[in-house]
Amino acid sequence: MTEPAKATSLQETELLVTGIRELVTNDPSLERGSLGLLHNAWVLVRGDRIAAVGDGTPPAAPRRLDVGGRCVLPGFVDSHTHLLFAGDRSEEFAARMRGEAYSGGGIRVTVRDTRAASDAALRAHTAALVAECHSQGTTTLEMKSGYGLTVADEARLLRLAAEFTDEITFLGAHAVPAEYADDPDAYVDLVCERMLPQCAPLAKWVDVFCEPHSSAAFDADQTSRVLEAATQYGLRPRLHGAQLGPGPGPELAVRFHAASVDHSTYLSDADIDRLAAAAPHDGPVVTFMPIVEFSTRHPYPDARRPLDAGVTVALASDCNPGTCFSSSMPLTVAMAVRDLGMTPDEAIWAATAGGAAALRRTDIGILRPGARADLALLDAPSRIHLAYRPGVPLSSTLLLGGVPTPAAAPLFTGPNAEPTRTTTEGSPA
Ligand code: NIG
Ligand code: FE
Question: Mean pLDDT over residues 110-138, rounded?
């Protein structure tokens, strides 16, 4: 007796997206270029999942939204952010633009301000940043701790992160805090012996700022100690490596089977060889975040080197108060094309499927049956406009876990107009 009722309620949650002039699916089984492109396409959504994708005549569905010849792509997967913090470092940015170097020391300023902030203030600030990300087409966010640097403050940031995402990274080894400046190894002891037992159950990933070129960050031995301890607690590694100069981070990422090595502006030839050798065995993804180089006046990395060696490349924002206070994945794509040597298609893949690979996810960054219904809308006829029209607000989130955002509201056709919700509510990013 319950079967027909179930079937009806399932059908009622179906939603058909039509009028897609160009659909980026990233589905390799479609074999239409690296992005699995479809034209004159549609996407059928059931609940929070994609039920079907196709071109030509769409199936019938109880609710329909028509994007009027625009481009649709998987929501951006921003696999590297530092969105939990308080305070403002715009003066530090202005000083860098006058010629001062970035050394990582400003992290301690944000640590001071973050420790002093209430939970409510941090929550409100992060919620606003998450809404900013969603409004530009980002549908999955990784989020790191790292501006607490005490047992209680790191655990607090991880708990707050869980209000926004499942992709939570413990970054207790972000910087040696001021009170341990004379004894960094004692801080590493604190991380391994007291922070990890409290923080590991609250996170999925561990990250370390492995950077011998910063006096506030961690060398190879310290990084290895943290990664060894964290993996004992079940955390999976990812690393900040070779951001300010060549260093041991990429090699450690390979050795510890990290999911990704990020920043990596200064990869050596030996690093590329190691990463390429590891690539067929699920080796680290290299994540580039070019707005960091923009905001620190560092040279841009050459993405062709890992790409041409067969290493998977992701693009992320690194949104943080110091080196990159921008959450813009579209600008990241444009800069990767203009300054990192990527083609528009490589950059779009890296900002969607590449981010998913960096998080070891197969349910996002791709539009195929069974994947999460996270869709970004581009107010343009072609995906290439993402790089072709830098700085123009063309992209937005259309569906977040199958739920229409305010950007979708005017696109509903027929009498079945959909109630929408704001993008900060409900399901995690
Ligand atoms: O990703 N490299 C270390 N961490 C941040 C910078 C944080 C800061 O300066 O506050 C980054 O660039
Ligand atoms: Fe970072």
Answer: 98
Domain ranges in the chain? 2-75+365-413, 76-358
Tokens of 50: 């994609």
Q: How far is the CA of 320 from the centre of ligand 1 (A)?
A: 7
Any idea which residue has 């693009």 for tokens?
A: 315
Residue nearest to atom 8 of ligand 1 (CA): 322
- The predicted-structure confidence for 168-220, as pLDDT tens digits, reads as follows 999 999 999 999 999 999 999 999 999 999 999 999 999 999 999 999 999 99
| Answer CATH for 76-358 from 3.20.20.140, 3.60.20.30, 3.20.20.60, 3.40.50.300 | 3.20.20.140
38, 246, 334 from 367: Cα distances, Å: 11, 37, 22
Whose Cα sits closest to atom 11 in ligand 1?
Answer: 323
On whether the CB atoms of residues 172 and 195 are closer than 8 A, the answer is: yes
| Entry pTM | 0.94
Query: Which of these, 68, 75, 3, 69, lies nearest to 45 by C-alpha position?
Result: 75
**CA-CA distance, 134 to 221, in Å (whole number)?**
38
User: What tens digit of pLDDT does each residue of 329-376 get?
Assistant: 999 999 999 999 999 999 999 999 999 999 999 999 999 999 999 999
The CATH T-level fold of domain 2-75+365-413 is Urease, subunit C; domain 1 (2.30.40)
For residue 331, how far is its CA from the centre of ligand 1 (angstroms)? Answer: 19
Neighbouring C-beta atoms of residue 113, cutoff 10 Å: 16
Which residue ranges have their beta carbon within 6 Å of ligand 1? 82, 104, 106-107, 110, 209, 240, 243, 292, 318, 320-323
Between the CA of 400 and the centroid of ligand 2 the distance, in Å, is 25
Of all atoms in ligand 1, which is nearest to the CA of residue 211? 2
Residue 200 near residue 235, CB atoms below 8 Å: yes
DSSP assignment of 369-420, as one string? Answer: TTSB--EEEESSSSTTHHHHSTT---EEEEEETTEE-GGGGGGEESS-PPP-
- Amino acid letter, 265: T
